[in-house]
UniProtKB/TrEMBL annotation:
It comes from Cellulomonas wangsupingiae. Residues 173-403 form the Radical SAM core domain. The gene is miaB. SUPFAM superfamilies: Radical SAM enzymes. Its cofactor is [4Fe-4S] cluster. This is tRNA-2-methylthio-N(6)-dimethylallyladenosine synthase. InterPro entries: Elp3/MiaA/NifB-like_rSAM, Methylthiotransferase, Methylthiotransferase_CS, Methylthiotransferase_N, Methylthiotransferase_N_sf, MiaB_methiolase, rSAM, rSAM_horseshoe.
Amino acid sequence: MSTTLPAPARTHVPGPATDTDLLEGGRARTYLVKTLGCQMNVHDSEHMAGMLEQAGYVPAAPAQAAAEDVDVLVINTCAVRENAADKLYGNLGRLASTKRSRPGGMQIAVGGCLAQKDRAGIVERAPWVDVVFGTHNLDVLPTLLERARHNAAAQVEIAESLQVFPSTLPTRRESVYAGWVSISVGCNNTCTFCIVPHLRGKERDRRPGEILAEVEALVATGAIEVTLLGQNVNSYGVGFGDRHAFGKLLRAVGAVPGLERVRFTSPHPAAFTDDVIAAMAETPTVMPQLHMPLQSGSDRVLRAMRRSYRAERFLGILDRVRAAIPHAAITTDVIVGFPGETEEDFAQTLDVVERSRFSSAFTFQYSPRPGTPAADLPDQLPKAVVQERYERLVALQERISAEENAAQVGRTVDVLVAQGEGRKDGATARISGRAQDNRLVHLSLPAGLGADGAPRPGDLVTVEVTHGAPHHLVADSALAPGGTFRVRRTRAGDAWQARAEGREEHTHGTGGGCGTAAPAPAGPVVLGLPTLGRPSV
């Protein structure tokens, strides 16, 4: 996934700028953050943008962003896939000429997982990079940019452990109607293919009260949907010894007044407990959606991956979820070609995928990551074998996705209209958004609908599904006489409109969004969850 911040464009009210923030003529420096990787990286980029704006930088206008014509360009990197380094250095190679040709100059900063891994090697390979910073010290970005300008030399600073919990940092939210909320950082699992624990460290859980305060702050600024984030969300509570803490947290977040949709990603099958299923089923605001990473359907391969569950346990979880939440859409991750995977192992994966009936799947060809145990395993598979198996898996999942989505035809769904979800909306005269189960829905508007009645991003539209394709649903019910089409204009849509019109209050409160965040509770917060002291960072 590749995401570029900021979006959408809006009027910016900068804070006090220092001499180093301003260019000749008093113009504030512009910035652009480009993100490669997962939702955690996207949320980290929101913190980077928030810190830059608090320091006096302003977001690039859309035309500037498209041309990368900015004073500061930050690349937030991923290290999960083998081609992550190729993507980074390909981008940096292209930016070298952009930087040379830009009359006013440009600073280039590299952060994220690959920066944590490669460190000063980035500057050695791309000496035109000005700043390199890691996953544990996002807060140093503005300081390093200023230091690099002052010293006219690259600045590399990589912390070995978390310095400041990211959620305490200023945040420039990508969306005003839906937001990410981190409940933990790091991971305690030891999957042999994964480099994330090495780069993001051991799991650190946030206090329940701090999480709820951030959710309440998001709601106060217009959001009606939040997604709880963690490398392994359902192990939340490991730091204070409550294995049922995540289920309790889901119920507490779901009860926040004004919040209409709660999602979370990603859980781990080994730690997924029935109390979480109960919390999902019994909390109306928790959406009927679950991302449950499979990785392999072969018990032998799962053992080699150090995934502490087996295929039948995985399938049992899905059965219990569907029994409690019949319309739940379940998605997954699958890795093809893990070292030593035989044709029999792969056939077992195909069997589990067939039985699981995933609505969609993220499928990956295994790639060795230096520093992971799997990179040194024997029996690394030939590329041709991995590719052929990958194509078979994709074909199977495409068929299942098409069948599962076709089964949605005739259902009435509530779609949260989103910005940028439908790349072909202009050509098809539709708008797009997400149903309760997170399926992407492209929907038509009735003829003669005026601007005052048209749904905005953040509004909710009730429609009937008329067609199912492998990767999306179509809801053209508004075009039929008497067809289902109802718009509920929301305060989230109001917030989107305020941002689009430049009326958004913009004070960069800590963690909460573009407005002032709700303060953390002064005393203990007890919601059926243990009370924690603040992390000592």
